[in-house]
Predict the structure.
Amino acid sequence: MYGHDDTGGASGGAANEAPPQDAEQRFDQLIAADQRIEPRDWMPDAYRKTLIRQIAQHAHSEIIGMQPEGNWITRAPSLRRKAILIAKVQDEAGHGLYLYSAAETLGVDREELLDMLHTGRQKYSSIFNYPTLNWADVGAIGWLVDGAAIMNQIPLCRCSYGPYARSMVRICKEESFHQRQGFEILHTLSHGTPGQKAMAQDAVNRYWWPSLMMFGPPDEASSHSAQSAAWGIKRFSNDELRQRFVDMTVPQAEVLGLSLPDDELRWNAERDHYDFGAVDWDEFARVIRGDGPCNAERLRRRREAHDDGAWVREAAQAYADKHAQSTRAEVRAS
Amino acid sequence: MSQPAEGSKRGWPLWEVFVRARRGLAHQHVGSLHAPDAAMALRNARDVYTRRGEGVSIWVVPSAAIVATSPDEKDPFFDPALDKAYRHPTFYDVPEGAKHL
């Protein structure tokens, strides 16, 4: 999927040198022709940096995203739900791995990326700083959070950077199971006892607005958007995708028999879209700054998991070293 | 050429993963991963790239072992093929009435 054919280390080093005139021209031509940029191609330093920042943040989101749902694995209401949830959380780990690999084709190191996450120098999606208080939250995450993620990610399948686009194709295929299982959980609850329905409604009430925030700040306040669009990294604006998500989700909420917590939400025949209320961007800024309900807990748990796994990594390395030595000894003896 | 742990200062070496989707098809590159040795690379490849029965066979190759053409010399390297249109069947005029050609 990626193509780490950068055996000469050219792509990492080339970034600091003045570009050969024709290399820059060739890059511009490829972008203009809607062709893909591959790892060993010359690319502007800022293009490389933007992609590293975006892909790393995306990868971090996938693995931090394992926590809110992993929280409910031991308490899933049936064996069927438990097996599904384990598979879903395992997929999130897999998605993180595809994306870290894609980021590495740009000349960064996996360990560096993890360090950046663990020390708070790189971010992950603010949605994962909200807690999962009850079982219905697992449904709301699948339906709304994965639904919003799919909306963001489908255009990325045509992103100008080949390895990122290829990883997104794979991720999008797998995400559709995630969204459906979430919808199914909520549908079951909303057609259950009044208490179960209330639980589903409560989860939707808490996850609706944070899901709208997943599309990022409004277009006029989005600092990276214009350049990313010019480079073919971003195909649609934050507000366009947010609107699309609202339009898709409102009819689904009707099928669920659940309401969305927005008094201003109504169909606008003139615009051919749903109108919706103002997102609380102060809350968004607070959560990004680190003051969300679970920021500290998520990072602490992530660092713990990494530290707790150290002995496994060391043991595997020791085994590989020992095995390599004995193989060399056998070769010498023969 | 770079070291075996290419691009990875402290971590495990990088491996490229190729999967045969089903019998009759060639292995295709699907991505990469880190692993301390070949056996672990195969196991990790199974977990990362074939969770939905995407393959019947997996190859893993140390990324550092791959030798590739350079994009800088792309044009000269592939030049010899460009001016030999006669290698394609469309180069030839087929008279009307000639069948099964």
About this structure: The two ends of chain A are 39 Å apart (CA to CA). Chain A touches chain B at residues 1-10, 12, 23, 38, 40-42, 87, 90-91, 94, 97-98, 101, 104, 107, 109-111, 166-167, 174, 313, 316-317, 319-320, 323-324 (CB under 8 Å). Confidence is low (pLDDT under 50) at residues 5-16 of chain A.
